[in-house]
């Protein structure tokens, strides 16, 4: 969007700034590590607004049509669930210092609908770490994620490959330590 300055938006409080106290580098992750995000509540207005822009199906944008659908009411787009859930995990700050993007995700499954008033949180588990053999400044981290609602029901699962920066070397050639 013209004139949108993401850094200014962060400073103005439009977006939550990631918590850097949990920040890590590739070298700090071990298979079995688990992370839990804070929760976020999906509102009817948010569900409709997202769907009007990105997934305008009747059961996402029209309360009356949604009531007659197989879902019996308005539900969030799966893409809305995915986007919001990924943001929740990023806002925890664990990748704030090291993220270099992602080569992709696998095994995305929407297991249950997300309805207005549902509060989701994310749980992630490190499955595998693999240092790059060609670029020593980075590695690949595989994580499995679950989005869970307020009733403890898993509504979405996925597996993500994160490309992460390795811990910077200190002057003596070793790595600096996690604070």
List the helices and strands and how they pair.
Blueprint: H1 6-11, E1 34-36, E2 40-41, H2 44-54, H3 58-61, H4 63-67, H5 78-91, E3 104-110, E4 119-131, E5 138-148, E6 154-165
Antiparallel strand pairs: 1-4, 2-4, 3-6, 4-5, 5-6
Would you identify the CATH H-level superfamily?
Answer: Hotdog Thioesterase
Strand content: 25-35%
What is the number of domains? 1
In CATH, the topology is named Thiol Ester Dehydrase, Chain A
Structural class category: alpha+beta
The Cα radius of gyration reads 19 Å
Biggest β-sheet strands, sense, barrel: 6 strands, antiparallel
CATH class type = Alpha Beta
SS summary, helix count: 5
Give the low-pLDDT segments. Answer: 1-15
> How many beta-strand runs?
6
* Terminus-to-terminus distance: 37 Å
Percent range for helical residues?
A: 10-25%
Mean pLDDT level: 87
Anisotropy-based shape: elongated
Q: What is the CATH architecture assignment?
A: Roll
Oligomerization: single chain
User: What is the H/E string?
Assistant: HEEHHHHEEEE
């Amino acid at each position: 969007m013209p004139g949108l300055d993401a850094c200014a938006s962060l400073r103005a409080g439009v977006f939550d700034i990631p918590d850097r106290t949990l920040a890590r580098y590739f070298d700090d992750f071990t298979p079995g590590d688990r992370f839990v995000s804070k929760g976020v509540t999906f509102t009817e207005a948010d569900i409709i607004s997202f769907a009007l822009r990105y997934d305008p199906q009747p059961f996402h944008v029209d309360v009356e049509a949604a009531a007659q659908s197989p879902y019996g009411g308005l539900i969030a787009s799966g893409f809305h669930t995915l986007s919001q859930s990924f943001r929740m995990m990023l806002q925890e700050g664990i990748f704030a210092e090291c993220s270099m993007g992602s080569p992709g995700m696998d095994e995305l499954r929407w297991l249950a609908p997300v309805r207005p008033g549902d509060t989701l949180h994310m749980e992630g588990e490190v499955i595998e770490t693999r240092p790059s053999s060609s670029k020593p400044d980075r590695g690949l981290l595989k994580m499995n994620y679950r989005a869970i609602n307020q009733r403890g029901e898993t509504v979405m699962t996925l597996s993500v490959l994160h490309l992460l920066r390795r811990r910077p070397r200190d002057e003596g050639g070793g790595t600096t330590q996690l604070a």
